Amino acid sequence: MCGIMGYAGKKPAAGIIIDGLKRQEYRGYDSAGIALRCDSEIVNVKVVGRVSELARKVSELPPESAGAITGIGHTRWATHGGVTETNAHPHESADGMTVLVHNGIIENSRELRSNLESKGIKFVTETDTEAACQLLALLYKDYGGDALRAMSALTAELRGAFALVIMFLDRPNEIWCARKGSPLVAAFDGGACYCASDPTALLRYTHDLFFLEEEEMVSLTPSGCKFFGFEGQKRIKKAIHLNWDSVMADKGQYEHFMRKEIGEQPDVMRLTIEAHTIVANVAMRKSLNIPRGLMDSIRRIQFVACGTSSYATLVAKNIMESLDNGIDVSAEIASEYRYRNVPGGGDTLAVFVSQSGETADTLAAARLAKTLGTHCVAITNVRGSTIDREVEHTVLSLAGPEIGVAATKTFMGQIGLLTLLVMFLLKEKGSLSAGDEARLIGGLRSLPTLQQSLLEREGEIKSLAEKYAGSKGFFFIGRRECVPLTMEGALKLKEIAYLPSEAYAAGEMKHGPIAMLDEHLTVVALVPDTDLREKTLSNVEECRARNAPTILIASEGDEGALAHADDILFVPRTEPELFPFIGLIPLQLFAYHVARTLGRDIDMPRNLAKSVTVE
Ligand code: AGP
């Protein structure tokens, strides 16, 4: 969703802000803008379209504007009001005193707007944000130019979610920020202060970051950050050191971040296994901080997440069930969980999974579970993210920054960590047999090499993608451990190739969807050589009888599968529960190459945002 970048320092602000916006482009946006504090005025430049166009417009500014040392920038993902230059941020108050950018949704903006209009204030945009901007200007005047009091009063009036970043015309080298519900991170590098929606925008300046808490404000000047609660009380805050390399957030030699990130997956697996290999090891126990004996009282485990992360939880659920069917385990979609009458309490353990740690529905679900007295654990890829700070026990996935909007390596990091977490919990419960433990650890250890061998066969997958890119649509089918993969394979194609693609448990096809099949719809079937191979192959035959071209992903050496496919990709054998770690890579590469063949904007697909911070 929207991206924010602010700078208050001694260097020209424009380039720093544009760079910060570029690094957050992957969040998804449709327009962009920047406001620069010049000698006696604030210059505001906006565009519909890309940050590169904004940069071009900024480069045409006169030297006095280009030299401005304070400024704020924004990429907008439209919610209220069409995609127009006027609706793009920054917004200015009618008196020109406040200039503001916003990420989130102000739910009472209509009320505020009509109230302000009744006082004679003229609105120029259709956005919810402008109400906050106009109101702040009024409050600033009422409080005689006391920014802290005006900000407190503003935050008390606003309902909804917001990260606000503001400049006041008469405060030349200062920026104010407020956060409730939408992420915001601030930093001080010794000579300048920065703020952004996403930490990756700040890593080239410092790795010591201040993640704003709920209902927290900060003022930024070249001499440092000052933090306050919404009531105006001062706060002392410690920076969190983020151990990410800024090079990790660069594309390097690759055409797309997504392709680079797919290729990083063997390393993600290696790191995850190294960090948590021994099932009852110190690292997992330390991160989880779960008291010994807790698992004796746990009757129910809920895995909760959205999108791709929710498919990772399905992988975890399947593995848990395959190892111990004596525990009530479910995988829940956070946007549903939060509104259902879900069971919870001291006999329930809920695991919330979010790569960004900022997904609004997952956060709301975690807050609900806490109120029920449920034991909560978070799995996230971003240290310092909201979920990391709000949920008492967090285990960090080790994927490093992911820039492509379509999740790839973070999914791999999640399923690696979740598998080890499941094994840890079952071992605590005393229900993981030594045989299963050794078998799975051995299997996990061999994965990075097997995954690497698959990546080296990209050419085969590319040819298949080019051959089938003209299909009217796709069905992904499979059984049990393959079902989460069918969902992920179909989602990747929807996200980056914009092609209709459905995921079905193979046995479900004949209960309806098979009616759609003809020679224009391609079926991708996941058929590893397990006890369910024959069953799935029968379902494949049912599809082929309806003339649907069929691609099979089958186990190496399964020559018998050849007779059931128009095209086949053999993948390395592994333990049945671990097939998702292998089957995933061809599906990601297939979606990537279909999208590339169709000339799609792979890293920034239309209409999508990397962090979904509104519900
Ligand atoms: C995956 O490709 C998507 N970008 C999306 O489904 C994503 O997984 C979902 O929005 C959840 O995000 P999170 O893991 O950051 O919570």
Describe the structure.
The chain is α/β, with parallel strands linked by helices. Helices cover 37% and strands 23% of the residues. It contains 20 helices and 25 strands. It starts with a strand and ends in an 18-residue tail after the last helix. The mean pLDDT is 93.
Summed up:
The protein is an alpha/beta fold and 615 residues long.
Task: Reconstruct the topology from this structure.
Elements: E1 3-8, H1 13-23, E2 31-37, E3 42-48, H2 51-59, H3 63-66, E4 70-76, E5 91-92, E6 98-106, H4 109-118, H5 129-142, H6 147-157, E7 160-168, E8 175-180, E9 185-188, E10 193-196, E11 208-211, E12 216-221, E13 224-229, E14 234-235, E15 240-241, H7 257-263, H8 265-276, H9 282-288, H10 294-297, E16 300-305, H11 307-323, E17 328-333, H12 334-337, E18 348-354, H13 360-371, E19 375-380, H14 386-390, E20 393-396, H15 409-429, H16 434-455, H17 458-468, E21 473-478, H18 483-497, E22 501-505, E23 521-527, H19 533-544, E24 550-555, E25 567-571, H20 579-597
Parallel strand pairs: 16-17, 16-18, 18-19, 19-20, 21-22, 21-23, 23-24, 24-25
Antiparallel strand pairs: 1-4, 1-10, 2-3, 2-4, 5-6, 6-7, 7-8, 8-12, 9-10, 9-11, 11-15, 12-13, 13-14
Helix pairs in contact: 1-2, 4-5, 5-6, 8-15, 8-16, 11-15, 11-18, 16-20, 17-20, 18-20
The structure holds 2-deoxy-2-amino glucitol-6-phosphate.
The site of 2-deoxy-2-amino glucitol-6-phosphate has 15 residues, from helix 11.
